[in-house]
Amino acid sequence: MFLRRAAAVAVLLLGSFTGTAHASSSADEPGLSLAVPAYFYPGELWGRLSDPGVGIVVANPFSGPGKDFDPNYAKAISDARAAGVTVLGYVATGYLGSTGRATRLGETTPLAWLAQAQQDVARWYDLYGAHGLGGVFLDEVQNVCGPGNAYSDTYRALDESIKSLHRGAFTVINPGIGTDECYADIADVSLTFEGTYETYQGWQPPAWQRGRDPRRFWHLVHATATQEQMEDALRLAKERGAGHVYVTPDVLANPWDTLPDYWRAELDAARSPDTGAPARPGPATAVKRGPTSLTLAWRPSPGAVGYDVHLDGLRVTGTAGRVPAVTVKNLDPGTAYTVTVKARDAAGNASAAGAAVSLRTRKADAAPPATPAGLGADQVKVASVRLAWERTADTAWYDVLMDGRRLLRLPAALLPADATVPVTGLTPATSYTFTVLARDASGNESAPARPLTVTTAVPSGDPISEAAGSVADGSATYQARYNLPFDFHHVYIDADNDAATGFAVAGIGADYLIENSWYYRHAGSGWNWTPVDLNPLVSSADDLFVWRVPLTAPLSVPLTGAHRVVFHGSGSSPEAYSPIVPVS
């Protein structure tokens, strides 16, 4: 989980998955690719990160893409791509609401989070796809399968939707801890450790990860004070099967806002002196063909720890380990693809591509699903709408199109018959045209539903209204109506009524911060906040947000019967503050 200030921008940098050669005669020595969370706006530091040891950058303007195009991000993404760096866009998944984390509409269901995440992905590609965006970094990911595999199935559907709508997209999931094995086939990389050097010394990855391709795992280690500790952490990362790593002396609340003083030494220590590329693997053959998939196998390359498969020049998937076989999904029926395979060794060196072969998927069956009927809209607001339609038989996915562009690809199995689908991030007083089509498992598409045009509401009055607070029964309750499409709904709480302590904002000194459904205590100076284990959000119906927090525990600065708050909104709309609200 990464806290963002509305005006701040954040960039998350990940390591290369291809590796780079460096002169040496050593062989078979593991190498690491640095994966660096860098919470700074594109600028001089991005230039320092354009090193062969860094290959993936995750950009994050506002805990997601934001709503508006930023030319500085566009240039940074384009320049990074030109330097061989893959740029990923940050997308929050809110643990699918399992921890009480709410979407921008205040919902905590897996479907609501799935729809919001897909819309953020679509926004990333709309804004920066033409500038070289390489994929998506999915944050706030659950680590357990969930009841009936509900969590892992939802993340798998999200990953497949990204890769089917944006072929060649590289994906990372961030549970921050070891996962159940049901996550083994989800995403290209899993971030499975995020903690201090002290914790890392005694930590071990789950047993199922042993023997897998190291470039599928990433470890983040902070509070690593010395260069000697950094080198030890890199040694441990190699032993524990991580191919991506980043080590920093920085500490909580935000260990990712600078590069370490030992940055150059870390780059050098991560590299392997092994520069010998593995032998080319054999040409791929199709062991099994489906309408939307190809199961491939090939002659192995000695010393390879993993393989990357390319279709028509785009890397689309990699193996989980040394076995020279993989199933490529999300393909088009009856279509020929040029397939090549590259091998990677433990040092990260990539082979030349094996011989190219042309392989064709089978044709789809002759019975497409029926056209979805009854497409309608509900709860049309300033920046959001809810869509509903009748479900159809023999349907694997529903595609939602907005103004002719595919916005969502939702799995039918996770879409209850009575569920409505939220669409957010819209512009006030603007007309949008929606349609829906059904897709079956063999890739057939129905005819689109009859188009539906919806016009969002016109905002009226103050951006934030009905701001109030009260104290009763050992807790404080705050409420305000947010009349514009804000991504972030903040409550700044001055617990001690002292503007000289805490975070200075809008005439108060905030000792606590509510951000959507998270609660934080101010730590240190400036924008530094430590999470408090509490979900304060009570409801957000009709854009009226209500929060409740205890007056004492777990607070280090207890609230009093009389204190002050300021409500704040930011993100997609221009930021706005309420007047100071006395609470008693």
Strand order of the largest sheet: 2-10-9-8-7-6-5-4-1-3
The third-level CATH topology of the largest domain is TIM Barrel
Overall number of structural domains: 4
Q: Helix tally? A: 7
Number of strands: 37
Radius of gyration over all CA atoms, rounded: 25 Å
Estimate the mean pLDDT confidence. 89
The helix/strand class is alpha+beta
Helix content: 10-25%
Distance between the termini: 32 Å
Percent in strands: 25-35%
> Given the C-alpha coordinates, what overall shape results?
globular
Which regions contain 5 or more consecutive residues with pLDDT less than 50?
A: 1-27
Explain this structure to me?
By secondary structure, this protein is of the alpha+beta class. It has four domains: 10-270, TIM Barrel, CATH 3.20.20; 285-360, Sandwich (Immunoglobulin-like), CATH 2.60.40; 376-455, Immunoglobulin-like (Sandwich); 464-583, Immunoglobulin-like (Sandwich). The protein is 14% helix and 32% strand. It has a ten-stranded mixed β-sheet. The longest helix has 19 residues, at 110-128. The model is unreliable at 1-27 (pLDDT under 50).
Please tag this protein with its features.
single chain; TIM Barrel; Immunoglobulin-like; 4 domains; 10-stranded mixed sheet; 7-stranded antiparallel sheet; disordered N terminus
Task: Summarize the model shown.
This protein is an alpha+beta fold and 584 residues long. Helices cover 14% and strands 32% of the residues. A ten-stranded mixed sheet has the order 2-10-9-8-7-6-5-4-1-3.
